[in-house]
Every structure is written in C-alpha cells, then in structure tokens.
Specification:
single chain; about 400 residues; alpha+beta; five-stranded mixed β-sheet; 14 strands; about 20% strand; elongated; binds zinc ion; zinc
Amino acid sequence: MTDLDSIKIQRSYKFRCYPGSVQRQQLAVEFGHARWVWNQCLAWRSNLYQDVGEKVTAIDFSRELTFLKQLGTYDWLKEASACVLQQKLRDQDTAFRNFFAGRAKYPKFKKKLHGQSIRYQLDQRIVANLYRAGEFLKLPKLGELKLKWSRKPLGIPKMVTITKDCTGHYFASFTCEESIQPLPQKPSGIGVDLGLKDVVVTSSGWKSGNPRYLLTYRRQLTKTQRRLSRRVKGSQRWHCQRMRVANAHARVRNTRQDWLHKLSTTLIGQAGFIAMEDLNVKGMMANRRLAKSISDVGMDELKRQLEYKAKWTGCEWVQVDRWAPTSKTCSTCGTVQETIPLSVREWTCQDCQTVHDRDINAAKNILALATLGRRESDVRGGVHKLEADYAC
Ligand SMILES: [Zn+2]
C-alpha cells in the first residue's frame, strides 16, 4: 500500500495529570477566574440583548476586560493567564454560534461543583519548547505538568484542555492530526445482532456476553448515595461523600467504556465489513422497563465507536433496516416463521428442520441482507444504510 492511501484523522487523547500543590493553587485561580469571566460576559450580553436588543460578542467583552484589568478593583484578574480568559470568551462565542444555528441550548452559567475546564492555545512557533510527546507539557504560569503518558501521540496539538472532574482528578486532553494506514481490505463480512442477554452476537457464532456494570455496582452506588442524602448539604462531610458518589459513578463509566472499546476494536479487526441493525436506541429507551439495561450497555456509544473506527481502518460499516424480520427468518432456507417470542432462545425450522440459536440466526440474516445490498453499491471505509426494499 502506498503512502497516498493513508487517511488523515483527528485523534483525541486524554491523560491523567498530577499537578503539584503550587500548580493546583494556580489552577484553582485559573478555573475560578475563567468561570467569572464566562458568567460575567454571559450576563452582560444576555442583559444587553433583553434590554436594548443589542447583540455583542465576546470580543467586545474582551475589550472591556482589558479596561477592567487597569482599574484597581479588578486587579486580581491579572492572576490568571490572559490566554485562558481569552479562550473562555472565544468558547462562549462558539456556544452562542451553536445556539443560533439550532445545534445547542442557550449557554448556561458555570458552577463550581460541576466539572471545571480551561483551554490553552499552544503557540505553534515555539511548540517544540512546550510539548514533546511522551516527555513534557509546559503551560503558562504553571510550568511543566506531570502527565501519565499512557500512549505516545504522533501529531502536535494546537490546543490543550485541562479539566478537573467532580472526583477531583485532573486531566489534560487534546487532539492531534495524524495519518493512519487503513487495514488491508478483507472480502469477508460479519453480521452483528445487538441484544441485552449478549450485547453482541456475530454471525460466526461468537457471543460477547453482557457485563451489566450498573447491576454489579448497584449496591455500592445506592449505599453511597443514601449516605449523601443524610449529610448536611454544604458541610465538610457532605463534600467528602459527594466525592465518593462521583467516584462510584466514574468507576462504572470507566469499566464500561474500557469494555466497549475492546469490543469495538475486536469487531472491526475481524472482517472487511460489518453489518448491524439500525437500532433506534432512543425509541427503545422510551420503554421504562428496558431503559436502565439499555443505557447500562451503552449501545449508542458502541455505535459511535464502530462508526469512527470503521472510517479509520477502511472497514465498511453497513446498517440494515430495523424492520427487516431478521429474527424470524430461517437463515438456511429463507422461510419466514410466525413471530417467535423473545423467551424462545432456540427453535427448529418447520421446513428444513435446522435447529437455530435465535441470536446467531438473526446475525446471519443481517449479514445476508447486507451482502445483498452491497452488490448494488460499492462503498468502502464508510457508513451506509440499506432500506428494506427487498423481499425477505
Ligand atoms: Zn429453514
């Protein structure tokens, strides 16, 4: 494969970061001042718009900010690094642009108790002195930050975000433009059936199981939450307990995320194209009895991961129509059976006497549908949907 075949991608990295006590103090100042600037600017432009109908941007506020810094009373604004405050204002402009375009809700006031984040722009002219992958990251007014480099990024970031989540952990995250070589194209494909008993069942007969993380940690979660409700809100003990609740949630989230990443990577590596049902996760969530189990699996997240990993590796991801009768069609002779209740895991075809596992049979049908649709269009490294305009 030549170099021309490589794809440019934006890969995001997130590393745990361990600031020292002086750095933590400085970061608290940066977070606090940035939040103040955000909230002041938001109030200012909201009021101006409501009272006078005048639209202002964060650039106008930035001019005010320079003026304020010269006044004695707002002298403290100089404690934070200027680029962090500027970036916060630019982010607010983006938030408003998203709001006016109908992509997002009206920007909100920031609160300290929720996660905090600030962004630094890395000056590309001197970036070699500020950042070297796997070795160091230096930021204004903070100096060198201690990072846990769990992997080595290939590109050079333009922007670095420092966050402190509600468990009190710090993270540095950024995106790099990298070029990757797609995997050699494989002719084979696999069909994937999504479910709750096994999250993923493939047409080759492999079953992933369902770890049910929420269920596993439920006792711990309810226990910590019940304790929190007994504490006096705002007290020292309440704050400690709040941290424990956040930690418990983070553990569930992280283990689930880890599992999903391993699952999606395995699936993508297995075949040249992957066929999946176009599930309506939102619609399924409307079913209260199932909502908890579905959100515990993280099906939306699995789909998101498969989609971008397919693009990266040149694997094709095909979604077949969700109304196709995949679970009641015999994958051997193609006859459609009467509706099979969900409790029946195994059934025998009346016509050809084949014994089917419910999920593997569905996965096989999904694969067959996708192969049928693929003959008509030749797409690689992308996502496309198939409509049910064929007889099953
Ligand atoms: Zn049959």
